[in-house]
Task: structure prediction
Amino acid sequence: MPGAFSGISMAANALQLLQRAMDTAGHNISNVNTPGYSRQTVEFKTSMPLTIYSQGWKALGTGTILSSISRVRDAYLEQNARNNAGSLGKYQTLSDALQQIQSVFQEPGDSGIAAAMDQFFDAWSALGSNPSDSGARLQVQSAGATLANRIRSSYAQLSTYGKQLDTQTTATVDRINELGQQIFTLNKEIRGFAATQGTPNDLMDQRDAAVRELSGLIDTKVETFKDGSYSVYVAGYPLVDGIEARSISPKSLDPATGTFTSDGVTFTLHTGSLSGQLQAMQQLQTQKGQLDTLANQLRTQFNTLHQTGIDQDGNTGINFFNDSVPQTGAIDLDLSAEVKASPRAIAAGVSGAPGDGGLALSFSQMRDNAFATLGNKSFHDFYLGNVGLVGSQASYYDNATTTEQGIATQIASQVAAKSGVSLDDEMADLTRFQRSYQAAAKALTIYDQTAQDLINMVNR
Amino acid sequence: MMRVSTSFQYDTYTENIRRAQSNYFDAQQKVSSGKRFTKVSEDPVAALTSLSARSLRSRLEQLTKNLDVAKEYTGTTENVLGEVGSLLKSALTYAIQGASDTSTNESRQALAEQVSSIQKRIVELGNTRGTGGKYIFAGQSIDTKPFSASSGALVFSGDTNPIQVEVRPGETMQANLPNADAFFGDVYSKLERLRTDLLGSDATTISNVDVQAMNDAIDKNSLVRGQNGVLVQQIDRLSTENARRSDDLTKTISDNEDIDIAEAITKMQQAEMAYTASLQVATKGFSLSLMDFLK
Result:
């Protein structure tokens, strides 16, 4: 038989637990804007019933106990979110980088290399057709200088952007190492907490957020252990395990192959911003190489022919562009010192006759020539081919980014539907628990009165 | 039914507003710039087509300027040959007069003077200069005075190299008169022969040789003038052709790069509506909460 006052302790217990439920709703409300937070729910279950005998054995309810306070979370969605973060990180990075590279070339427009090249060849055509015209001669000089200047400055801008990319990459690697350290520390706390104090929901949320951020930076694979700790592999490299958090050295990154090495082992990156940054560096290198090729080919073709000509002062063997052995590429492309000093040093013909524009016409017609060095393309087509490639890749990665963003939104909406805090829900819960609390309090009063009545009866 | 969490609801509102705003801005940009794209990546195919078309157009514009150079040479040549023709006709008249039995020694002396002044004029014509003081008939030695008379013969100091002008992509045209030295030399020596015969009052030779020589010179002049005329026509045709192709390219470039303004404005209005709508929805959504109804 239960005691006469057991109702009082049952109601007191309910009051206490309902307060915890209201606390949890309050915790949810407080974290409505915390990124990576999963809403928590309180689950009640009935406490062990008492068995009483009243015309047979009966189970008598004894109230409620708290069965769990747990995160509402879907591991499958979490995995999807991580995969998506990796692709999004990579495409976003590449899309930004290619836009940057593209903006260096300023095409289509009047201030790009293509327009400068047109003007350069047109100037030769003008000089060839009217070799004694000093205006045409000046035009060749200034168009040549403009072309060299644009190639040079495009190269310099690419180099500047390359340095930025270097810094970004180092920052990314630093962040990866930091996150590894963070996950390792959280692992330890979670293990300790779980052993003594139950499920550490908030710490687990923090760790999942760290893993999610890590997936955006590099291919991340997670293994979960029974004690609740994570082992984290990035691109196959064991970044975090039960023993330690390791780190990647930014110096071991190789943009050409998209890999990094540790203790002689090579790991290949597939997704994440780091992989995007390495690919971008590679793209940048390619574009710089193409500008070098263009600059050197301009030197070779123009100088070889220009040397055969005679300038207005009867000199021969003059270079049009500056040149040296070995050739120096786009970084310092300029007119030769002679041509820079005076347009009279420009050779329009080979005979020295003031009306001989034959050489200038050859230069003008060189624009139609295809060169093996330029992949059997003309100067113009070679350059446009590169610009087109950068443009279509930028376009491809823009689209890929948009797609991944769409997927990210989709996943976020699913995650939010599952784990996100709804203030309306929490308000409803609070109200519900408040009402229950009021009822339990009322019940306590009634039990109290009953007990009072009993005591009074005995007193009488 | 999907559960809607508060922060997701707010994120979605802001995201929708942001997207609508960005679309609206893009649409405005398109209307104000009049361009379909400003970067290659926005439409790589159209951008490359445009770049090639721009390149060709710029080249054609240069070729049209080159044609002006060719026009100067051929036009000047045409004028000079015209005058040479009428001078030769006068010389023919003098020759016929000189061949006549009615002419006296004195009158033949006078005719010889006339022929002499024609010769001087021929030398002047051979030394015609164009813009920038260049000699039109000196070949490539355009700074050198090509013709001078020396003891009854015409001395040529220029060269016979062609003045080549690029008139079509990869194609040149000789703009100056080919073999100008031979042409002027021949005319001059025929006139010299006539002058000598007139001075010598050799009516028979004048009649038998010089009249025929003058006729030959006139024929030769007409022939050369005709050949030059062909060039003049060709230049005109090329100018027209270049202008037409240039216009075609301008149209290609415009079709490629420019927006349809009516369509763009319609799109802008649509984007504006979408933007307004997203703002209204958010305002409504932000103001609704269970808290407003709980007492």
About this structure: The first strand of chain B starts at residue 147 and ends at 150.
